[in-house]
Amino acid sequence: MTTAAQKFKQSLAANQDAIEKGLDTLLSAEAMTGETERPASLLAAIRHGVLNGGKRFRPFLVLESTRLFDGNAEAALRVACALECIHCYSLIHDDLPAMDDDDLRRGRPTVHKAFDEATAILAGDSLLTLAFDIIADARTDLNADARLKLISALARAAGLGGMAGGQALDLQAEKTSPDEAGIVTLQAMKTGALIRFACETGAIIANTDQEDFSRLSRFGAVIGLAFQLADDLLDLKADEKTLGKATGKDTGRGKGTLVAMHGADWAEARLDALVKEAAELLAPYGEKAGILLEAARFVATREN
Amino acid sequence: MTTAAQKFKQSLAANQDAIEKGLDTLLSAEAMTGETERPASLLAAIRHGVLNGGKRFRPFLVLESTRLFDGNAEAALRVACALECIHCYSLIHDDLPAMDDDDLRRGRPTVHKAFDEATAILAGDSLLTLAFDIIADARTDLNADARLKLISALARAAGLGGMAGGQALDLQAEKTSPDEAGIVTLQAMKTGALIRFACETGAIIANTDQEDFSRLSRFGAVIGLAFQLADDLLDLKADEKTLGKATGKDTGRGKGTLVAMHGADWAEARLDALVKEAAELLAPYGEKAGILLEAARFVATREN
């Protein structure tokens, strides 16, 4: 492992710890002061769905993109936690019987299995709402304009024109296979939008000029594309391995993807090109962007 | 009907028209400009769940409380629409099989019946997200601090310590009957929080002093209490009428309420007292508050 790769792994682990602690605090009954009570069962369901040892890759991108511009680290931690609330709400709702119908996530029962469906729906709704509460709060110590920009950008990345819309396109794709442009749009919305938002946050938090914002925004899009391509490539390889003995859900996991359409060689060449583009985008920041660049390499070459 | 009551009915109808048009515009594909597409089926499900001829009582309170302080009417219309998006998302999710399992709302198929469950979940999620998008947007022509205050207050009214938390308490109440304090908390969160927020918005939009804000906030709490009491009173009367022939869902609709606990006479005396308190709270604004006061009377005495 190169020194840069080691630094990246260390940073990922350190950020993961910071996020875990941040989420634990934000999702504790004591932190939630207010006039009314927080129902214990709902809070327990939320904690079950969030504090599950996830890699916290999106929050990592928030923290590192903020470091790149020497932005407010404490504010970034709150924004990173808010983003993870959105990601986790989407997983809780995705796992529901009416959606992907999954019983397990990270080896533990999904929220609707550990609690019940109604509680899982409400836990997701509450987390989605809480994300905006966290950013709007004055404890996210940024000026009002920056907080509003973050709220707008997050709402767009998560909503009808972003993640939720992408999930709806995914439901449609099960009935009618999308063409190449359709797949690109679906993936950019479903998984790309939140990853791009994560990379943009640093520029918003540090109030950079438009050029820095655009570089980070494009870097986020590039990482999102690499993330999805690598995922689809892993699925294709898994499908090839299990060919003939695949059953149920595993069958055709790699279908309806650009990788299934163009093949593994094309995907690997495309991933190389994306890592090169990431390097060009981050070039002006020199060594300071080393960890982010390594993150792009990691995403493009991961094997699980 | 008194002149005041007529004015109230006219205002309710006029505001309903304005909200219907506002929502229709905000939920049209053309209004949703952006880099990505809005999936047609998801947008159709959202429109089905929102543009259903509701009374728009919460938005009415936003518009009238803003008029009381001569606040920005266009901004108030956007805030009112955002609030209605939250209310409608909660109805879409409430109607799901895992929650209340309702097939009809206002005589039309519920969203999961007209579309499917997955689409209904995503439609609710998208509407919830869109509410914050609408308020954060610069087209909601208020200064950044006011927009942030509205976002914070809405998130708290809708989330874990508000509406969603109240729904979780309601689920618990089906298993273990809450005591009187428990019922008060449940109702204040489940239905009270959004109504109170609606009344507070005028003070936030017009940037009033703390005293005006407190008056409107308490007025909102009073209207919320009256709304719930009147509802429970109607249920009690309906239960009495259908006693012996009630089946399934209708049985005991009035159970677990303050009205069931203390009786109809107590409820009517309490409603009178709430209307008196509303009048005292609005007294400093004289005739200007006539429509809001009439709204309190209407809520307390409605017969359906």
From TrEMBL, chains A, B:
GO CC annotation, single: cytoplasm
GO molecular function: metal ion binding; prenyltransferase activity
Keyword Cell membrane attributed: no
Any one GO biological process: terpenoid biosynthetic process
Cofactors: Mg(2+)
InterPro entries referenced in this protein's UniProt entry, alphabetically: Isoprenoid_synthase_dom_sf, Polyprenyl_synt, Polyprenyl_synt_CS, Prenyl_diphosphate_synthase
KW Cytoplasm (keyword) present: no
Xref: CDD domains: Trans_IPPS_HT
UniProt keyword list: Isoprene biosynthesis, Magnesium, Metal-binding, Transferase
SUPFAM superfamilies: Terpenoid synthases
Protein origin, superkingdom: Bacteria
Similarity comment text for this entry: Belongs to the FPP/GGPP synthase family.
Protein's recorded name: Probable farnesyl diphosphate synthase
Organism (species): Martelella mediterranea
